[in-house]
Amino acid sequence: MIASKKRESDNLDTERIKANLLQLERELQTIDLWELHSNYELLRRQKIVERSRQERTLREQSVVEQNRLIRDVRLYYHFENIGVKYFHPYDEHLCYLIREKLREKKFRIPGYTHMYVQVSDTLENALYRASKLETWNVCGVAILEDFGSYATKNEADKKRIVFDLIKQGLYDIAHIDKLDMSMLNEVLDEVERGELT
């Protein structure tokens, strides 16, 4: 079929294509495609996690002027079989309060405007999800190993857990980017006193 479609100007080696297709056919008869897919997926995941680690190391080693005001703080999470409103309404409410207080105090950050906290059950899973795709945001990571028990907690405990996750993620960002920890602690203490006591 390829040979019949080939024009004189085409630079195709039909014999080589035929040999490659025959080799591929032999390989596919002995290879488990699902296992091959799983191996490639694992390699892809490891590459993303490693890129995330390298990006965090570069941020930690660099000295960048903190010249931008914060625009947003958000909590994102990924757990197996957990829906999108798992931490609702505490995640949105607490992030809003923290963001507003940081803006009031003119909290400055280097080059980005959005601080996201990525929560998962392991550091590797959080780093996989925290891979930086845009220049205007940065992700901190937080770990909640026993995420399944969250649903059984009372409302005060749920609010505390969500606050602690946000705090953990913001501390992660602040440590890496050398942010003003005293101002961040002041804001987090204000929110904690107003919302959790």
Protein topology:
Elements: H1 2-5, H2 14-30, H3 33-61, E1 68-69, E2 72-77, H4 90-104, E3 108-109, E4 114-120, H5 123-129, E5 137-143, H6 155-177, H7 181-196
Parallel strand pairs: 2-4, 4-5
Antiparallel strand pairs: 1-3
Helix pairs in contact: 3-5, 4-6, 4-7, 6-7
Molecular structure report:
With 197 residues, this protein is an alpha/beta fold. It has two domains: 14-60; 65-196, no CATH class. The protein is 56% helix and 12% strand. The chain contains seven helices and five strands. Strands 2-4-5 form a three-stranded parallel beta sheet. A two-stranded antiparallel sheet has the order 1-3. Helix 4 (90-104) crosses helix 6 (155-177). The chain starts with a helix and ends with a helix. The model has no long low-confidence stretch (mean pLDDT 91).
